């Protein structure tokens, strides 16, 4: 079967078939990488990769950001180590509830993420989809006066802020892998280091725009998020076990959709580090 790339009807995303991610020849990898830059989200149905194979695929995009010690690919799951379902009030489930808010991965870290690879192992009977929003198309759709103003603004990105906003107070020292230092400051507009395309850089971790008071800052960031995350700039994927996706955190927001926690949902996540030249925070962060 030849490699095919079928764009979705949204401004982002394409489904890629006719390729084995474990056996990519140079031409296929080139086609995948070009499509990644163009569509920012690629869906590969039915790959069925192991954790190590998924990490090997992720490594093609760059260095892996290790989120949990010694694990390149981590489970995103409502099942505990003993195999039992976790209670909603556990720390881990509070983190997963956070994933249901629009975000870009690791923006609260000194070096934000470049890409993320996510795959499905066990899928609940209803809900539990993943959805993405196109921050490039959102930027393009803003009126020029608004764009000029946004070019002058930065925002802090704080994991403590985003969790607090959903009623989860994270104590210092409790956030294990998460950044505990001062939150990084990042421009609201990001120029993609490969394509040169500009995009809004926002999400639930963004807060406290310097020069605006707290309420004004929150209002502007909420307004930009609502503007970004609507059709035709959103795409939702209904998972089948074995599906693999990769997305560009420099161009998109994403979120998990809710599901009934009496059912299992087991996903595998591998995160690709950003490049210091383009994904570092501003010096004054
Ligand atoms: C993630 C994430 C969404 C999901 O893995 O970074 O946000 O649908 N996942 O599980
Ligand atoms: Mn995420």
Describe this structure in words.
This protein has helices at 26-39, 51-59, 91-98, 135-141, 144-150, 159-165, 214-228, 276-279, and strands at residues 4-7, 14-17, 41-44, 64-65, 73-77, 113-122, 130-134, 154-157, 185-187, 189-191, 198-200, 206-207, 234-237, 244-248, 252-256, 266-273. The chain is of the alpha+beta class. The chain has one domain: Double-stranded beta-helix (4-Layer Sandwich). It is globular. The model has no long low-confidence stretch (mean pLDDT 96). Bound molecules: N-oxalylglycine (OGA) and manganese (II) ion. N-oxalylglycine binds next to strand 6, strand 15 and strand 16.
Short description, anyone?
With 285 residues, the chain is of the alpha+beta class. It is built from 8 helices and 16 strands. Strand 2 (14-17), helix 1 (26-39) and strand 3 (41-44) form a beta-alpha-beta unit.
Oligomer: single chain
Query: Domains counted in the coordinates: how many?
Result: 1
What composes the largest sheet? Answer: 8 strands, mixed
End-to-end C-alpha gap: 49 Å
What structural keywords apply?
eight-stranded mixed β-sheet, 16 strands, 25% strand, binds N-oxalylglycine, binds manganese (II) ion
Sequence-ordered SSE layout with sheet pairings:
Blueprint: E1 4-7, E2 14-17, H1 26-39, E3 41-44, H2 51-59, E4 64-65, E5 73-77, H3 91-98, E6 113-122, E7 130-134, H4 135-141, H5 144-150, E8 154-157, H6 159-165, E9 185-187, E10 189-191, E11 198-200, E12 206-207, H7 214-228, E13 234-237, E14 244-248, E15 252-256, E16 266-273, H8 276-279
Parallel strand pairs: 2-3
Antiparallel strand pairs: 1-2, 3-14, 4-16, 5-16, 6-14, 6-16, 7-13, 7-15, 8-9, 8-12, 10-11
The structure holds N-oxalylglycine (OGA) and manganese (II) ion.
